[in-house]
Design brief:
The structure holds 2 protein chains of 2 kinds.
Chain A (H helix, E strand, L loop, with lengths): L12 H20 L6 H26 L7 H17 L4 H25 L4 H20 L10 H7 L1 E2 L2 E2 H19 L1 H11 L1 H6 L4 H27 L10 H11 L11 H20 L7 H19 L4 H4 L5
Antiparallel strand pairs in A: 1-2
Chain B lengths: L3 E12 L2 E12 L3 E6 L5 H8 L7 E6 L2 E3 L4 H6 L2 E4 L11 H6 L5 E4 L2 E4 L1 H14 L16 H14 L4 E5 L7 H16 L3 E5 L3 H7 L2 E6 L2 E7 L5 H9 L3 H9 L1
Parallel strand pairs in B: 3-10, 3-11, 6-9, 9-10
Antiparallel strand pairs in B: 1-2, 1-4, 4-5, 7-8, 11-12
Helix pairs in contact in B: 5-6
Classes of the chains: A mainly alpha, B alpha/beta.
């Protein structure tokens, strides 16, 4: 069976279905709540999607490689403390912005060292790091929020370039960079080969350790970039920062058609998965469902999607859709 | 016949007290299909692992083009031009044929330091190889997961050719294949030799061996017990060597 072109924004059946689900959710919520369909609320949804999208791109690469990182949200929190402190000390805004991805990349390196060199299953290794980092956030913040930070970063990312804020450029650039790495470089092939079978990848002469390190570092850097955006918009860092982001990211990425078992992924799917998740969360909130229930919805969605995939995997290969790797 | 590509002299492999291979001498020539036969545990797997660099011999030496070589890893053997096609083919089912053929050795061009894949060239090279091998696979962009067992063997052979292998070791290539597929893989094996490759074929199927091999070597209990030109022997004789019923083997085993 032929595969479809893996164009930078092309859609397959799964992604069209997601798009339809987004449209349906928008229609239902617009009818149910007078506040949902306003331009202001649309901006809020997009605004709330930024961190999840950046982290989701990294999670897509990790899952495609047969890896996972349940500590990404907390990595974003740690990077946010660095960015927040730099911002509070009135450091140069560009340096402040770069602090996020740099701290994130360093933490990604640590994750890789634990998981790859320690030969610990990624889900267990990153769960251990999650526990450690959570306490690190508490100690670093000394039990107090960073709040009332200056506006330097907000101004920088809001600055208009050709009529578009720099923030939008950075996000689109991050997407394109990840897409190029995945679909147009040897790194992407190696990552997908490892996701299919690490042993076969090794027999094929792929530098497995190097590729796994690079992927964790990229994912960390993206979580750090998310921290920069977080601090720029909210100008505070709270104790519970990022605590539901890993769950949200895994749900959005799996929803988008990336295989939890590795070897197959969709970046467009991740974008749509992020939007659908954020639309649902926003809409339910506007309908009066307490935000306490959001992780229930996300977790239920994740389990639901995986269950359907497990059931459909019993169908013959030809019906599984080889459309996208 | 050409000069031997590889010569094994007195190759011995011991695992503790067990001698898996005992003083094996043989020559592998370019353009020739050499079949290694033997019962389970006869030593043929150990021997090809020595050739592939997965085991280092306890004794004896290997010469390539007359020069002694030592392999400390499969990578060493690969860079000496030895490719092994494993029974469980090391192909990535989620990648396309051309991606698999080039995996780990992609063609790329650097743009601002980013190594972009040269997809079109890789695709054309693979299309050419597939055509040359008469593999009857039309689309190098098809995912390997959609191919049959025989077609996957063809992809693995393309991969070996693309790595400029001078010696291709095929471990039971037809073990899991249907009849028509087996025919195809055997003709691929023949074509590989016609291209000037040395081919070592491991098989349990004597009919297959008699169809493609130029020379047949029989292993028994870690020793080489027979070496025959195909036209000088017949399946019955080879079976008697394998089982140890042949008088020569009896005499040899009595002497030890």
């Amino acid at each position: 069976m032929r595969q479809l072109k893996d164009g930078i924004f092309s859609l397959n059946g799964r992604e069209l279905a997601l798009l339809a689900a987004c449209a349906l959710a928008i229609i239902v919520f617009s009818v149910a709540s007078p506040y949902f369909g306003t331009p202001g609320n649309a901006a809020t949804i997009l605004r709330n999607s930024v961190e999840l999208l950046l982290i989701g791109l990294g999670m897509t690469l990790l899952l495609a490689m047969g890896g996972i990182d349940v500590s990404v949200g907390i990595v974003m929190g740690l990077a946010a403390i660095g960015v927040g402190r730099a911002l509070g000390a009135n450091t140069d805004p560009v340096l402040t912005a770069l602090a996020g991805p740099i701290i994130g990349a360093l933490l990604g390196f640590v994750t890789a060292a634990v998981v790859v060199l320690g030969r610990i299953p990624a889900i267990v290794g990153t769960l251990g790091l999650l526990g450690i980092y959570r306490t690190a956030i508490f100690i670093l913040l000394g039990g107090q929020w960073l709040s009332g930070l200056p506006t330097g970063l907000t101004v920088l990312l809001g600055t208009s370039l050709l009529g578009v804020p720099i923030a939008a450029f950075v996000i689109v650039l991050a997407y394109i960079a990840v897409w190029v790495a995945l679909r147009r470089t040897p790194f992407g092939l190696h990552l997908l080969a490892i996701g299919n079978s690490e042993e076969k990848a090794r027999l094929s002469g792929i530098p497995v350790i190097k590729v796994r390190f690079a992927t964790f570092i990229i994912s960390g850097a993206l979580a750090g970039l998310a921290a920069t955006f977080y601090v720029a918009s909210y100008r505070n860092v709270e104790m519970t920062i990022g605590s539901t982001l890993a769950l949200d990211a895994i749900a959005a990425v799996v929803l988008g058609g990336t295989s939890i078992l590795g070897g197959k992924c969709s970046l467009v799917g991740t974008v749509l998965g992020v939007l659908l998740l954020r639309i649902l969360q926003n809409g339910l909130l506007l309908m009066g469902v307490p935000s306490l229930w959001q992780p229930v919805v996300t977790g239920g969605l994740l389990i639901g999607v995986l269950s359907v995939e497990v059931l459909s995997a019993r169908l013959p290969m030809s019906q599984l859709g080889w459309a996208r790797r | 016949m050409n000069a031997p590509f590889l010569i094994a002299k007195g190759v011995t492999k011991r695992f503790g007290a067990l001698t898996a291979l005992s003083e094996v001498d043989l020559e592998i020539r370019s353009g020739e299909v050499l079949a290694l036969l033997g019962d389970n545990g006869a030593g043929k797997s150990t021997f090809i692992k020595v050739l592939a660099g997965a085991h280092s011999p306890s004794d004896g030496e290997l010469l390539i083009d007359g020069v002694p070589v030592t392999f400390s890893s499969p990578k060493d053997a690969a860079s000496a031009g030895i490719a092994t096609i494993f029974q469980e083919l090391a192909l990535s089912e989620n990648l396309s044929i051309s991606e698999n053929v080039f995996l780990g050795r992609e063609l790329k061009r650097s743009v601002l330091g980013v190594p972009f894949l040269r997809r079109k060239e890789m695709k054309e090279r693979v299309a050419g190889l597939l055509k040359e091998l008469e593999a009857h696979i039309s689309d190098p962009e098809a995912p390997v997961g959609s191919l049959s067992g025989g077609q996957r063997q063809a992809v693995a052979i393309c991969r070996a050719l693309n790595l400029n292998a001078k010696l291709v070791i095929m471990d039971e290539p037809t073990a899991a294949l249907a009849v028509a597929e087996t025919r195809k893989v055997l003709s691929l094996t023949r074509r590989l030799a016609e291209r000037g490759c040395a081919v070592v074929l491991i098989s349990h199927n004597i009919a297959d061996v008699f169809e493609v091999a130029d020379r047949i070597i029989v292993f028994r209990r870690g020793r080489k017990v027979a070496e025959k030109i195909r036209s000088d022997t017949n399946p019955e004789e080879i079976v008697s060597y394998i089982t140890g019923a042949h008088p020569d083997v009896r005499a040899l085993e009595k002497a030890n």
